[in-house]
Description:
Blueprint lengths: L1 E7 L5 H14 L7 E4 L5 H16 L9 E2 L1 H16 L5 E2 L2 H17 L16 H16 L4 H10 L3 H22 L11 E2 L1 H14 L1 H10 L2 E4 L7 H11 L4 E6 L22 E4 L7 H11 L19 E7 L2 H17 L8 E5 L7 H8 L4 E2 L11 H13 L5 H9 L7 H13 L4 H6 L7 H23 L3 H12 L1 H11 L1 H27 L5 H10 L15 E4 L1 H4 L4 E7 L18 H8 L9 H16 L2 E10 L12 H7 L21 H12 L8 H16 L24 E2 L8 E2 L1 E4 L1 H9 L1 H8 L8 H14 L5 H12 L7 H24 L5 E14 L16 E13 L5 E7 L7 H5 L2 H11 L13 E13 L2 E7 L4 H17 L26 H4 L1
Parallel strand pairs: 1-7, 1-8, 2-3, 2-6, 4-5, 6-7, 9-14, 10-12, 10-13, 11-12, 13-14, 15-16, 17-19, 20-21
Antiparallel strand pairs: 18-19, 19-20, 21-22
Helix pairs in contact: 1-2, 3-8, 4-5, 5-8, 6-7, 8-9, 8-10, 11-25, 14-15, 14-18, 14-19, 14-21, 18-19, 19-21, 20-21, 27-28, 29-30, 29-35, 31-32, 31-33, 32-33, 35-36
This protein binds iron/sulfur cluster (SF4).
The site of iron/sulfur cluster has 15 residues, from α30.
Amino acid sequence: MSTLRVLGGPGTGKTTLLVEAAAAQIAAGLDPESVLLLTPGRLVGSVRAAVTTRLLQAAGGGVIREPLVRSVHSYAFSVLRKAAERAGDPPPRLVTGAEQDGIIRELLAGEIEDGASGWPAQLRPALGTAGFATELRDLMSRCAERGIDPLELKRLGRVHSRPMWVSAGRFAQQYEQVMLLRAAVGTAAPQATVPALGAAELVGAALEALASDADLLAAEQARIALLLVDDAQHLDPQAARLVRVLTAGATLAVLAGDPNQAVFGFRGADSDLLRARTPLVELTKSYRCAPAIARAISGVAGRLPGSVGWRTLQGSGEGGSLSVRVAASAHAEAALVADVLRRAHLIDGVPWSQLAVIVRSVSAAAALPRVLAAAGVPVDLSPLAGPVAGQPAARALLTVLAAAGGSLDDGQAEVLLTGPIGRLDPVSLRQLRRALRRAGTDLARVLTGPSRALPAALAAPVNRVRAVLKAAGQAQNRHRDPRFTLWQAWERSGLQRRWLAAAERGGSDGAAAERNLGAVTALFDIADDYVARTAGASVPGLLDHVAALQLARPAAEVTSGETVAVLSPHAALGRDWEMVVIAGVQDGLWPNTTPRGGVLATQRLLDAIDGHGDEVSARAPLLAEERRLLIAAMGRARRRLLVTAVDSDGGDDAAVPSPFVAELARWATAPVAEFAAPLQAPPVLSPAAVVGRLRATVCAPDGAVDEARRACAATQLARLAAAGVPGADPALWHGLTDISTDEPLYVVGPEDDSAVTLSAVTLSPSTLQTLSDCPLRWLAERHGGTGPRELTSTLGSVVHALAAGPARSEASMIADLETVWAAIPFDSPWYAANELERHRTMLSAFAAWRAATRHELTEVGTEVDLDGIVAEALEGGASEDGGDGLPAVRVRGRIDRLERDPQGRLVVVDLKTGRSPVTKDDAQSHAQLGLYQLAVAAGLLGPSGDGDAEPGGGRLVYLGKPTAAGAAEREQTALGPQDVADWRDTVRAAAASTAGPRFTARVNAGCAHCPIRPSCPAHAPEES
Ligand code: SF4
């Protein structure tokens, strides 16, 4: 037996050497089945293809029966299968990481229900989170890789005074029992005890099988004469033990690797095997990296601690380049990367698939792919970001399955109609809802019940969804196999054709289509796994299974297609590109020396297993690993390497380049000028940006640009327009095109099945206020142009609810406020305490105002409903051409407080929690108060009001900023008969204005908080 070590940096030909060694030995007469080449799982396919090609070339064709190339886990699995065969047991079962996560979450949920007393008190709030389950699985996997069983884990916890390890050990015991039970159920033999294994447990189980079956060990050792191991630095201790066991029987073992690229320390990997005192071959010339890149890699490697591994790497070919750029903001950095990638593709002709962006943390750089895609860089976002169930394409199909399983609620119906199958826009959705309401039905029933006549624009999306639901329902009735139902839904949706066509066209739409196809493929794979492993598989079971998979499913080994990969250094291992951008090299992020292992202190556990106490610095090994990670990332580039970082002192967004940036700048092939003055966002070479710049020149005011320059820009725009570049043709510019329609949103008339006739418009007092302040804002907000409900509005509701209680004392309101406060999700305790104090003050101000006004006001009711017609439709309202008729106006709302004054009139009181009172003049024309008073005059108060009284005025009571004199109050005088008539006209006109077709942007005091201000035409001139 002899063992040879082969050490070399990136691209030095280690894998090629192993492939050639296998081919040469087989050509020399060695039985191919005596060769085993172990390589990381992600590379198995490409290495196997290389070996096969090489063997076919050498032997002129032939049949290879056994896989020569395997991952360590695949080999371990084959050992377990053989052991099971020999023992007459069923074959072992594999569970995916996502499946393990699901089981762990189920078990944790059970523990939470039982009070979670087995966990330290400080960890209990975290038990229900997805992050904790993942961390727990990680800790159990690390233990399995190092052969630490649950009892040993508990012992380590006691010895090192880490109660969380004791709890994790107890949990791991319970997990093992559950896995054994799951294995036994669903097999033909009830006595079966072969457990379902996670990847981390496979190798340990294979070692046990070899240790307990001497014949099996002898057979394996006799079979493998030539053992080849690639990337040996990634092997964890259990895998290294397995390799040693096999090495003992092999005639020749070649262990290849690079200690300087050992980057899986957090998974327990180390380079032990490569340090053994056996003959060594060192490869020093990189056949991948250009000299400039190899020089920089050598420079970074030169600062690694210790003496294991190479320190000098020679490049090959022409010079190559290494650039270092520092940007003034994250936006500028993203624009720089986008511009560099587009120039490399458009000017230098580098295919998109030969460009890659490596970021230390894909989640921290979440915005980068979006910016790249927006600039016209087709981005490969695999692996899919987030769980499969969260992907829009998969979500639509899962909703179809839920409906086929017998349930569809309004929310699911909306998901289907607005998702990739229905493709209904928000405005059309609203029209559909209105039409259905009139017909006495709803979204769910129109999708699952008898078909209905609808306007053509609304019928098409409804019919698409109905057809898919019908196909899935029929499939579900014919077969119980959920895969069949899923397939029928997918096929009937027609999305495959649509997305494949988009993917072929390429660009950012193509990349999105590829992501959708990837999500659907992953969903089918999951369904396949689920059915294969579950007796009595069903659609509801599949839905539960998918919902439990909290982790993203790993993507295929290497994605195809002409896209730019954006990925982490770990995901980039084993691949290479013509040009690589290493972006976001920030201080604190790369190197990231935060101890790994979070709340369960997994890193400390590994240290304890390795015999290092708490006093040993965790930082030094992490720093070395981060440096090796940088080497690995740099080694992915063949000819060009760009490193970028942000240097910004912009308050909360302050960012400082990593020390690695200055180090790399020493090896840059061009001087780095930006350390003194970080780069602002460069103009990106993208169609939208170029068209924008040309348009700005063409449309610049007279005298602002040179006329020859303007003419040149106009010529270029004309060329781009002729080539069909979007936005270049002036005929399509905003403001220059004709209005798409002069039709109003509806016409006044007797309602029928059409979505466009309306006899009455419903207004709430707050809607009237928005309409009178700014009709355009009303239009935008009415059709989805609002943000999510903010915490401040929730808090305002709390004050209103507490103040509504009849005759409640100040102390009781405040006591209830403090109880409610504990249930409100504040981001920080200090903010919660601040706001609590402010809200106490508001309730005190309210109590004081109430006490101070009792001599003149008597409470009639609180939260008084009003509902009814305040203005009848005008005669002759319905006209064919949507003419002059005004609709009836129905008002609905709720008055905070209704009081009676000494003359017996009803006074409307509106409580405000804002801090800025309107002016006294504005209060007189306050639309909300006006409409309330009009409703009082019209006798529209509900049972708690008084339907037969005259209005006695309105008051706005501002509780948000009381002074020594108490809450500020603004008054609207009581409406007389003429005022009532005037308000009725105002309300009628406001209601009629909701039909459009023109909506005026009216600048008002609320513009600062308007959600559409950035695109508001009333503000465009001053802000452009
Ligand atoms: S910014 Fe002001 S004027 Fe413009 S839409 Fe909003 S509220 Fe109206």
